[in-house]
Amino acid sequence: MIINHPILGPRDAQEFTYLGDASLLNRPDWQANDAADQFYNYQYLRDNPAGEHRELWFHEQGDRSWLVVTRNTVTHEISKVELASDVARKEGRSK
Amino acid sequence: MRFSGFKVIKEALTGHKGWGPQWRNPEPKPHYDFIIIGGGGHGLATAYYLVKEFGQKNIAVIEKGWIGGGNVGRNTTIIRSNYLLDGNEPFYEFSLKLWEGLEQDFNYNAMVSQRGILNLIHSDAQRDAFTRRGNAMILNGADAVLLNAEEVRAEVPFLNFDDARFPIKGGLAQRRGGTVRHDAVAWGYARGADQRGVDIIQNCEVTGFRIENGVCKGIETSRGFIGANKVASAVAGSSSRLMSKAGMRLPMESHVLQAFVTEGLKPVIPGVITFGAGHFYVSQSDKGGLVFGGDIDGYNSYAQRGNLPTVEDVCESGMAIMPMIGRSRLLRSWGGIMDMSMDGSPIIDKTHIDGLYFNGGWCYGGFKATPASGWCYAHLLATDTPHKTAKAYRFDRFEHGYMIDEKGMGAQPNLH
Predict the structure, then answer these.
(1) Interface pTM, i.e. ipTM
(2) Same domain, residue pair B140 and B32
(3) Residues of A with CB below 8 A from B253's CB?
(4) Tell me, what CATH number does B411's domain have?
(5) Looking at residue B42, what is its pLDDT?
(6) SS3 breakdown of chain B: % helix, strand, coil, rounded to 5?
(7) B285 with B353, same domain?
(8) Around B370, how many Cα atoms within 13 Å sit in the side-chain half-sphere?
(9) Chain B CB within 8 Å of residue A21 CB
(10) Which of B251, B303, B413 sits opposite A76 (nearest CB)?
């Protein structure tokens, strides 16, 4: 698989390590009343779809950036690659 | 019809005209007591034991394609019970004991061959860990032998003993481990279940569950609604897809695992050998092909095919441990889809929906578990209580911190 890095261009997927569903970006509020439930959902449960899947890849042997890759789990086709920091910022997180 | 030596001779003398189909192809009835979704090894074994051991009747196995077309026909056929943890080892040892009597039990030649499995040791720390594992196995009634380097060399002299990076320091052997003809396991269970009245319904895809007031009343399929008192999922690999139709999210990801076979060779490998410093395992089939595999590809996939980097990695591991493998030519490689659970261990449990049961999360170790998985699932379905060896395989263990994390990797499915 070739991942089209937003800064570095097309890179071999072997340069990356895989973390999993991009929902891992959305860490729950530890002070919420149902924080234990939320963290259980966040940590252990997954949609695991057959089809389009947003997922986190880390460019370990490159610029060490985290990417959100939209990839089809049935065909392995990659349709979109974003910097995870951009995605988080768009959701109003961090600086 | 029973298979026997007498029957083979009789058929040989009469032109082989007396062999019939091994199972029926019935139309679905409107209602069953038990519906098992998934006509793979685990689903068929469940149906078989439900009738034979638990005396239940009126059972159907529903299969999307044809029986045995999923992971039971795609694995590397290894059986063993060399686990460490209390939640696992009694279960896998129960499974190995069932393998030992399986062919007589279901009167079918599954080519169960206890040729032994050898886990190689490459460091002092690994020797300590394997010694501990061997002791855990023995405590649970399994067999284990710790070998030093010379003893390993005497058994398998063709390995790369003096590799500079990963020299072989010894091995942990389980002599009762081995290989089984995987397709025959599905066929044997199917035939045994069918003979006892189980309807095996192929080419029937489940499209939904009918759930009323928190009770599962049956399944919607490509061949219409089928009612049931109890519906049991056994579709590891596609568990998340199926259970999402019941509104459930599961603690697992689906990953692709590749397997490989070379051209047929004369006998060169006596049993199953695993590389302790990388992820590589190899055995030789009765047809002569070297059957081997390694890591999962590592990303979510339902594709039933993998990518080349993993092929390269597996072949490099093979070359590192057994250089002569480079002289053989790779004939085929293929992929299967694994339910990779959050702790690397399976789930056999009720769901929060009454009448809906779940069996899955087998990661890449489901084949060896087939008999015990079927037995324990049948136990759960028939009695609504877990079998004593499968008590730890609960849905809620993640929520309450009772993980069975054999590799100690945490909630990272692609590392188990």
Answers:
(1) 0.96
(2) no
(3) 20-21, 46, 48
(4) 3.50.50.60
(5) 98
(6) 30, 25, 45
(7) no
(8) 34
(9) yes
(10) B303
